[in-house]
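Hey, I'm writing a tutorial for new members on how sequence and structure tokens pair up, and I'd like a real worked example in the thread rather than a made-up one. If someone can provide the structure for the chain below, I'll link this post from the tutorial.
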Amino acid sequence: MRLPWRHPLLLPVVLCALAVLAARPTDAAEKRRDGGDPGISAQVARLYEDAAVATQQYEKGRQEAEVQRARAQRLEVLLHRERQEIAVMHEDLGRIARTQYRNGGGLPLTAQIILAGSPEELMRGQQVFSQADLAVNNSIEKSRRAEERLAKDEAKAAAAWQALEKRKEELAGLKTDIEQKLEEARWQLQGQADASVAAGACRGAVRLDQPPTQVVGGWVPPVEMYTLSASFGSGGSRWANRHTGQDFAVPIGTPVRSVGAGRVVKVSCGGSFGIEIVVEHVGGYYTQYAHLAAVTVDQGDQVTPGQWIGQSGTSGNSTGPHLHFEVRVTPELGSAVDPVPWLAARGVPLG
């Protein structure tokens, strides 16, 4: 099951942008980079920065488009009401015209004088005719004004819908551009991870600006938003025996959090787990975070619940971007316990 999240497009940009833009390598990492191409890191940083700016524009434009859509819909309601009013006016004009025709209201004044039986009858006829004529003229003028107003409102509504369609096209292009930049930036990050795994040496921790965290009960899930994939004990051709952890399907670059307070006892790059971190917790338990794209802590660091300790990836023996999470009774492979009930017992149900 997928946990609810409000901005599926915005999240990967912000998370990855923080990882690269706020990165500050250790001295060891700086030494290892001296022989490499420094332009790659700058290129990745620019990609993330551009993607973050584009995402802000997308969100702003999306909100403006929603306002524009509501305005256009209100105009459509107004136009419908005006069309109904004009239809009623046309019915009134037809009824008045029919009444005049039956009463001889259309006779010339000379004919009315000849046919009148008396001066009084002539005056009454003239008065009735004048009143009917005034009513007709008023109705015609009212109808004319209503039709002019309707024409203006129809033009305004058409312009509103055209503007909305244009904005939708612009947002679609912007979204495509964001996705392309994100994809390129993510795989740049993963490329660096693969190079580290191939070399068997980590690049060193990159330091992220930690967001404010509100932890209730001292424990959190290892990633904030996810889809659960391979579970503990499941079988498959990728594992020699049974699956030893719980997998969380997340995009490359997603911040990985320490589930609780503890000390980093292992940071390694190589082997089937790719880039991995192991954290020791009070009570004799250890948690492992594997297939990462980058680490943000060094061995020996103390970590707090919810602290970002790395970025997810697909390094090592991995068929796609995800976080492999284990709970162990020793720091080594082979002592894993099911992490789902373990977390649930600490107030962190996964679903």
